[in-house]
Amino acid sequence: LTIIEGTRFVEFRRALEAHPEVKVTLRGLSDAEVMRELGLEGHPEGRFFPDTYRFAAGTSDRELLQLAYRRMNELLMRLWAERAQGLPIDTPEQALVLASIIEKESGVASERPRVAGVFVSRLRLGMRLQSDPTVIYGIGAGFNGNLTRSNLQTDTPYNTYTRDGLPPTPIALPSRNAIFASVHPAAGSALY
């Protein structure tokens, strides 16, 4: 089962449910109920590592999600412990939120440190991040593929055009490269 970097949690769940060799036990549960079933707290977005998972037929969706959660948590804690000094983020959770934005803003791994550098510079100056992917995430299922000026002006907790700082949760499942970039941004003062 391959979960692509930048995938959303809802897409991860769909992939598990669609895989013919996965024992589905969590179908029909809300995200909050899935988190409780896994013995976890908080919002699930960003907390599961996107990767290729090899498993025995009959492995449950619960087991695969627990594995993906552990991999993400271990990676995040290791990279957070090795972070650059002086970042305008204070917690591993904030690094994960920033990494998810970096993931969605960059199509190529080599761009991620530079994208991270722009966002870190904006955070240091108190500028809004103005990231289209955060706005799209805030719109949710109602997004029709066409981001409008009205969308950019409609306030949601995820609209980084109307709100200062980071959104309340990650907006996707970030890659190792995006997490690394969030804690090791390119040096400089570029804002765009």
Report on the architecture of this protein.
With 192 residues, this protein is mostly helical. The chain contains 8 helices and no strands. α3 runs parallel beside α8, α4 (92-105) packs across α5 (112-125) and α4 crosses α8. It is globular. The chain starts with 8 loop residues before the first helix and ends in a 9-residue tail after the last helix.
Supply database-style keywords.
192 residues, mainly alpha, 8 helices, globular
The helix/strand series, from N terminus to C terminus, equals HHHHHHHH
Q: Compute the number of strand runs.
A: 0
Helix content: 40-55%
Percent range for β-strand residues: under 5%
| DSSP summary: helix tally | 8
Largest beta-sheet characterization: none
Give a short overview.
With about 190 residues, this protein is mostly helical. It is about 45% helix and about 0% strand.
What order do the helices and strands come in, and which of them pair?
Layout: H1 9-18, H2 31-37, H3 61-81, H4 92-105, H5 112-125, H6 132-139, H7 149-153, H8 176-183
